[in-house]
Write a structure and sequence with these properties.
alpha+beta, seven-stranded antiparallel sheet, three-stranded antiparallel sheet, 10 strands
């Protein structure tokens, strides 16, 4: 039984639609958001969902294995999200899988990875109050070859000391904890509901 309720949400003026949790708020009503992004944040927590329309990263090989073929694109987008310099030291990718987006055609490849990023304190930098112990990322990449576009759906899940049960989490042993478990549920609903209503969007952004 799902723990959360969802509502159909129009993105980019209705060109895209997706079901998002009812307790998430549209950040653009609070501050400016880039034209190629939609950002929603949990009103009762710290988790955010970002839908990002970006230029397509070329495939890295002609392999028959889709995951191998698009591995470079996944890595490139992940590095852009977390910072190229920090990626090798602070990011651990736990799982990468092919993903089916229910309303899109089977020949449109999509992939999801689950990763964690630890906060790296730079020399001379004070420890920030409320800085997360780590942030979990669920990144779904949808590859639109004809449109020369990549769509990224990123669920960011900061884990701040005192806001989660540390004993519940051991990703190496498959223990995700409540916050990541919630994010997995959000991702699954996004895969089921994500739809493109106006393909002309990708010529405009």
């Amino acid at each position: 039984m799902p723990r959360h309720t969802f509502q159909p949400t129009s993105l980019f003026g209705g060109a895209l639609t997706v079901d998002l949790p009812t307790n998430f708020a549209d950040v653009s009503k609070l501050r400016q958001v880039p034209d190629n992004q939609e950002v929603y944040i949990d009103k009762d927590g710290f988790t955010s969902i970002i839908v990002d329309i970006t230029e397509r990263v070329p495939s890295s090989s002609d392999s028959n294995d889709p995951l191998e073929r698009d591995a470079k694109a996944l890595t490139t987008h992940l590095e852009e999200l977390v910072g190229v310099e920090d990626a090798a030291e602070t990011v651990q990718v736990w799982n990468t899988t092919e993903t089916q987006i229910s309303h899109l055609s089977d020949d449109i490849p999509a992939y999801t990875l689950i990763a964690t990023q630890t906060h790296k304190q730079r020399e001379g930098e004070r420890e920030r109050q409320g800085a997360p112990d780590f942030t979990a990322l669920i990144l779904t990449l949808i590859r639109l070859e004809k449109e020369q576009t990549d769509i990224l759906v990123t669920i960011n899940v900061p884990h701040i000391k005192g806001e989660y049960d540390e004993e519940e989490i051991d990703l190496a042993m498959g223990k995700q904890g409540e916050l990541i478990g919630d994010a997995v549920e959000y991702a699954a609903r996004i895969w089921e509901s994500f739809d493109v209503k106006d393909w002309g969007l990708f010529a405009e952004i």
